[in-house]
From TrEMBL:
The lineage of its organism: Bacteria, Bacillati, Actinomycetota, Actinomycetes, Micrococcales. Residues 45-253 form the Coenzyme F420:L-glutamate ligase-like domain. Keywords: GTP-binding, Ligase, Magnesium, Manganese, Metal-binding, Nucleotide-binding, Potassium. Residues 1-25 are annotated as: Disordered. The gene is cofE. This is Coenzyme F420-0:L-glutamate ligase.
Amino acid sequence: MSAAPTGPDAAPPGDAAAPAGGGATAPADVTAPAVLVMAQAPDGVPVITRGDDLAARLTPALAALRWPDGTTGVAEGDVVVVASKIVAKAEGRLVAARDAAARDAVIAGETVRVVATRQRPDGGVLRIVENRQGLVMAAAGVDASDVPAGTALLLPEDPDASARRLRRGLHARLGVRPGVLVTDTAGRPWRRGLVDMAIGAAGVRVLADHRGRRDAYGRELNVTVMSLADEIAAAAELVKGKAAGRPVAVVRGMGHAVSLEDGDGAATLIRPPAEDMFRRGVSD
């Protein structure tokens, strides 16, 4: 996928991605658009189970990636995007849920606030809730797919901390310091369909604030703040896929959004209550 640069703020070609194996460089202007963005999901990621060192398990598949320019592996400025499911499995977040009632109890245990409920055609109840991580999601993010029968998988307890640990582990093994996103799938108000979004981040500037800049007609932008982390997460999902057995992808070309510091994480993407227009859901 590619994005054509426009206007005087377009990044020069040399800023699209750092060379493989290169040293850390100062990131480009986070507001500058990428010249070219590539996303690649490696094959060969092993099954992840409780207690696995996730960085060690992912390193062989990531190191084997081959890019169109002839480079291999992960480079400075790349973003490693990892499905929350394998992070949660490595962290031992699998719990017993032998039937629907038990799963409902697990969801209730992860719920901080109920936003909306709706009866399903099969007689069950869909619950949109705020979970312990502060995310508003269906079923609190509790997942019963791709796990052993009679179990359910909770989200990572602290996705930002998970992203920071994975980043440290990859840095130690690959010799470069990529950005890391932990992602999960969610719906959005007013829109059909699900998209992947960032629930954990390390070394990625999660927001690009365009306020104060001017559009092509000279008008000042007052409300435009882009979620870079969610855009990268959605791009990575195009090559990961929900059922393709590829739970990790590398996005190249977003080096202007990668920082040496871990940053504040994806928790900063959660709207505070005063800004949340959908805090109380209504379903007829």
